[in-house]
Structure formats: structure tokens, C-alpha cells
Amino acid sequence: MVPEQLSVRRRAGIAAFSCLFTRRAAAAPAANTAPEQPRFSQAESGLRVLDVSIGKRGVPAEPGCNVSIAYRGRLAAKNGWVFTSELAADEDFEALSWTVGDNSVLSGLDLAVQGMTPGGVRRVVVPPKLGYLTEQTRPVPREFWQRRRLFSTVFNPTRIANGEGDTLATTIWDVELLRMSCPLTEPKQ
After folding, report:
1. Cβ atoms within 10 Å, residue 147
2. Which of 1, 38, 78, 174 could form a cystine bridge with 72, CB 3.0-4.6 A?
3. What confidence tens digit (pLDDT) does each residue in 112-167 have?
4. Across-strand partners of 96?
5. CB neighbours of 121 closer than 8 A, spacing ≥ 6?
6. What are the angstrom distances between the C-alpha of 82 and each of 48, 60, 71, 133?
């Protein structure tokens, strides 16, 4: 075969193949290839919630239930700086446990676990009014320097006086409900 004929045959073959491919592509409806972006739902309280994964079937957490969570807390004002983390994969992991509705943790976390079932994971954006209101509000970062940086940002009097308080105290939490037990209630008659 003469090299010129070979190149003509190759070109013809490539052209035929590309025509088949483009016909199929043209005949098929244009599919939206961009994945759908997850959407946060916003509660009346200002809490923004995104269910990352739904937990096991069962009764959802409600006020009065004892819950244990693994969590990671980030500060929105510091480019997502992680100020506290208690994840199950950590060596010295210690779950945060409380009774829903007893006001012993951030109001935002208390509201965030309501409606979750064990194994569920949520990302929660907690506005300042549901976040750290005092330095004793749980969960408190273990390390001293993390506590100081968090509290000096959230409770900074100069920035609060300048009207920056809302942006400084917004926290983002990744929460996994590990365990839950609810008291048995008698059926209403």
C-alpha cells in the first residue's frame, strides 16, 4: 500500500467513526452533567441545616432524649478554622452527651440534633444568637490556645462595638448522632 492511500483510508475511517459518534450525541437529549448542589434548609430561628446522610430508621431525637454526638466545630470568620473536634476516628475521642432541651450545650446544636436518627450526619450553620453566649457554653475546646482564640474572636468588644459581632460568632458544625435513648412515654388516651 502506498502511504498516501493509507492516510486517506485512516482519514475516512476517523471521519466515519466521528460521524457515528456525533449522530448519537446529537440524537440523545442534552443531559445536565452538573451534579445538583446540596441545599441548606433554614429554620425560623436562623439555623441552617444540611443533611449529609440520613441515619437509621427509628424515632427521631426530640426534647427529653439523651444523645451522644461526634462533632467538628469551625469558625466562619476565620476561614473555617477548626477550633474543636471530637470525631470517632480520633485516638482520644470523647463523645459529647446531653439531654436534648436541657440548655447545657449551644442552642444551635440542641436544635440541630432534633429530628436526627442514630447514624445521621448534618452540617449546621449556627448564627451568633444560637451560638456561644458565654465562655462556659459547651462544647468548649480542649486546648487553651484554641479556647483563647475562639473567645477572643467571638467576644471581641471592639469588633462587636463596630457591628461585626454577627459575622465573627457564626460557627459551622459537622454533627454525627452516635447514640440516642428516649424515655418511654405512655400513650395519650
Report:
1. 15
2. 174
3. 999 999 999 999 999 989 998 888 888 989 899 999 999 888 888 887 888 877 77
4. 69
5. 51, 52, 53, 55, 174, 175, 176, 177
6. 19, 28, 11, 19
- How far is 53 from 152, CA to CA, in rounded Å? 34
Q: Could you tell me which of 38, 93, 33, 34 has the C-alpha nearest to residue 68? A: 93
Give me 136's grid cell: 462556659
Query: CA-CA distance, 71 to 18, in Å (whole number)?
Result: 52
Measured CA to CA, the distance from residue 42 to residue 138 in angstroms comes to: 23
Which residue type occupies 175? V
For residue 188, give the DSSP letter: P
Identity of the residue numbered 157: P
